[in-house]
Design goal:
The chain has 268 residues and is α/β, with parallel strands linked by helices. It contains eleven helices and seven strands. It binds 1,4-dihydronicotinamide adenine dinucleotide (NAI).
Length: 268
Amino acid sequence: MNNLLANKNGLIFGALDENSIAWKVAEKCHQEGANLILTNAPIALRMGKIDVLSRKCKSEVIPADVTSLDDLENLFTKSKEIFDGKIDFILHSVGMSPNVRKNRNYGDLNYDWFLKTLDISGISFHKIMQVNEKLDSMNEWGSIVGLSYIAAQKTFPFYSDMAEAKSVLESVTRSYGYRLGKMKNIRVNTISQSPTKTTAGKGIKAFESFYKFADKMSPLGNASAEDCANYCVFLFSDLSRKITMQNLYHDGGFSNTGISEEIIDNFN
Ligand code: NAI
């Protein structure tokens, strides 16, 4: 432990169970000395195991559906009271597509669900930052991180309308990153993470095969949720103060690999 986040207050969205990327991030941030508040959708709080994490991290849990401005206002107002101060970092680790969940083909999308996908997984990043700005909830030099996937740049057929949601997420990162940088030196980035064995990950069709494919394609192998948590700690710490408006690949080299020997061997 290096106390990289000592005296920092962090808000973590999206810890559902011990496999969640947000769960690992919360554990690491706690180890590095941060004060935390955890949040998730009310239904996820009922079905998940967040109480275990909250005890471990000595942090309170405040329910919030990321699509609801009222919930977010309540969340940011209460966080300020609990911390008795402003927030230093935020993790947005939230994603859900009703079309993917219900196996709707990309050529047969339900458009109400498509809008829901965009709202939950992309627009919510803007909502969080807008409420945060209006309530002036964040300290100067704060850091905001969202989790993305390379399907925003290249097509992966099974990723369906989540690809569009990740494009929204990454675009909001640039636009709001500029605004918050100018206003308060706050940085905004996304981490484009390797396939990771979580509830959301396994919800994607043929996930196991794709997980193995990505692992063999990447010279360093897939980045795990723990690896991602370490990267988040760095991005929340004062060591990354001039990194902003970036989509940061955290994928063992997958994004820059054309083909690997292991994949070629599969065809011999
Ligand atoms: P997860 O299923 O553990 O986390 C997703 C979270 O989103 C859950 O905690 C869920 O309750 C929350 N959520 C869904 N709807 C919500 C709503 N309306 N309001 C508030 N919270 C809501 O899965 P994972 O993998 O940890 O996902 C975290 C992020 O990482 C997502 O953005 C996902 O797209 C991204 N990601 C995941 C990868 C993977 O292979 N698992 C790869 C690249 C990115």
